[in-house]
Structure formats: C-alpha cells, structure tokens
Amino acid sequence: MAAVRTGPVSAACLALGLLACGARTPPTHAEASPAPPLVATLVLDASLDVPGASDAPPPADGGSSAVADAPAPPAACPDGMVLVAGDYCPNVRQTCKRWVDPPSSPYPFFRCAEYEPSVCTGTRVPERFCIDKEEYVRPGDPLPLVHQSWTSAGAVCAADGKRLCLESEWQFACEGEDMHPYPYGDGLKRDATACNIDQTKLGKTDALLDLRAPVSAYPGCMSPFGVHDMSGNVEEWATVDKGKAPNRSTMKGAWWLPGKNTCRAATLGHGEIYQGAQVGVRCCEDAR
User: Fold this and answer.
1) Helical segments of the chain, H only
2) Per-residue confidence (pLDDT) for residue 67, from 0 to 100
3) CA-based torsion, 137, 261, 188, 243: positive or negative
4) If 0-12 CB within 10 Å is exposed, 13-18 middle and 19+ buried, where does residue 47 land?
5) Helical ranges in 15-64 per DSSP H
6) CB atoms inside a 10 Å sphere around CB 259
7) How far apart are CA 219 and CA 205, in angstroms?
8) In sequence order, which residues have a C-beta less than 8 Å from that of residue 136 and are 6 or more positions away?
9) Which of 37, 44, 5 is closest to 21 using CA atoms?
C-alpha cells in the first residue's frame, strides 16, 4: 500500500472502506508689462535660477509628456495566474481544538473541525511566484482534467511554458502568511459547504464515482492569495522541495472524499507514473 504523510489516499484505498489515506515645470515669464510690486518681481525672477525652466506651456494634464508616453510595466503574472509574494514558514505547528468524527470512528483524530491559530516554529523565507488561479481545465471541457500522473501533469504545464509547483509554493499559495490550515473562511474551521469535500458515496476502487465540480461551483473555496479550489475537488500534483527521482512527487489538496483537505496534508508514495481518476493539475511559474 502507498505510504501516506498526513493526507488522503488514492482511490485504491476505497476498496478497504477507508474515508481517506490524505516637482512641476516652474511658472513661465510674462510678457513685458508695468512693473509689478517688488515681492511679485522677486518671485518671478527666482524662476531664472531653476534648472530646466522653460517658456513652453506644461502638458494639458499638468504632468510630464514623457511619463505619459512611457509604456506600462509588464504584469508580474500572465492572465489566469495569481501572484503569491510574502514570507513563508517552512515549519508550522497546527493544533486541533476539536475533531469532526467521534472517538468511536475508525479515524477519530483525522478531520479537524477547528484549529488553534498556527505557530511558525522555523525561520521564514521570502517567496514570489505565480500560480494558476484554477485547477487546469482543457479548453471546451466542463470539468478539471484528471487521470494525470506527476509526469504527464508536468508535461501539461510545460506545454504552457509553466511548471509544476514546488510543495512549499503550493502550500504558501494555499495557506497565506498566517499559515491557515484551511484555505477558506478564517482558515481555522472546517466547512464542508465551502469546497467540494466530504462526499461519502464514492463508488468502488475500479469504478470511482466522478464527483468533480466545475471551477465555478464553489466560489467561497478561496485562499488568502485568491487561489481557488485548493481544498478538495481534484487532488493536484506538486514537486517535493529538493526531491530526487524517483521520489519527487506529492499530491496536494486532496479530492472530494472525507480527507484531511488541509494545506499541509500530502499523499506520498504513489510514484511519478501513478494516474488516478481523482488527480489533476495546477501549474506555477517564476514571477516577472
């Protein structure tokens, strides 16, 4: 069975009945006229010593024509992507105050109903990158792309001049600088209505019910940076920071099952060629 780190498992785990395994131009001189009062003359004469003084009228808008004609700087990210910038905490302590499932459940300490505020236990590092606002949807398709391996997902991103996100990038885009366990709401309370999570009629291992939702279906499932659907809907591939083949792949966000569905949860161990009916794509790229 695939090794799992604090996250949901693949559809294969369903066979066992598990819930989850996862200054302005100076004034111009006036034409000759009767001498004005002394004070006014002194003010006007002062302009003679101002570098760049000109008798030409200023631009109609009161600004510099050179500035007006200058091209706007390029956007940090292309259309469809969100800029994520700030200080990321690699090591976080997240403590659950109360659990969703009762002690009699097979997984009594798995889904957290409410967390304490997160605490950074390490040194923060600056991050600045672009990430897709939505899970990848092929043009013309109504639902996010699935049946993707880490390898094929990387190829999908590369075709658009992008790459798979590092796990640290994915997590920061999901949780923000406050290190929210959940990307939506106040980030501390679980809300099964905010995102496509906690579906229980999942089907069988070889016939998983397709419960994907269109990317427009859960507008409240939004991270602090404005990235959508980072909890549930489809699981998303990312690359383990400093990972080496064949252990570079991780799945993030979980899918529509009753999994942890938190920003830090991850499913490991399936390998880089695993393709699941619940596994999709989200891409990153360096910011300009």
Assistant:
1) 38-46, 65-69, 150-159, 167-175
2) 55
3) negative
4) middle
5) 38-46
6) 27
7) 30
8) 144, 145, 156, 280, 281, 282, 283
9) 5
How would you class 113 by CB atoms within 10 Å of its CB: exposed for 0-12, middle for 13-18, buried for 19 or more? middle
Class of residue 138 by CB neighbours under 10 A (exposed 0-12, middle 13-18, buried 19+) = exposed
Give the amino acid at 135. E
Q: Which of 101, 265, 99, 31 is nearest to 171 (CA)?
A: 265
User: And the tokens for 77?
Assistant: 């990210």
* DSSP type of residue 163: E
Q: Which two tokens stand for residue 62?
A: 């009161």
Q: Which residues contact 227 (CB under 8 A, 6 or more apart)?
A: 82, 84, 131, 132, 133, 173, 174, 183
> Exposed/middle/buried for 96, CB within 10 Å: 0-12, 13-18, 19+?
middle
The single residue listed with the structure tokens 């309370």 is 189
Q: Which tokens in the block code for residue 39? A: 């004070």
Is the pTM value of this prediction over 0.85? no
Residue 287's nearest CA partner among 173, 193, 184 is: 173
In sequence order, what are the beta bridge partners of 125? Answer: 88
Segment-wise mean pLDDT, segments of 10 residues, the chain, 288 residues:
42 38 39 42 39 50 57 89 98 97 92 98 97 97 97 98 98 98 98 97 87 97 98 98 94 96 94 94 97
Cis peptide before 139 (omega within 30 of 0): no
- Give me the domains of the chain, ranges plus CATH numbers: 80-288 (3.90.1580.10)
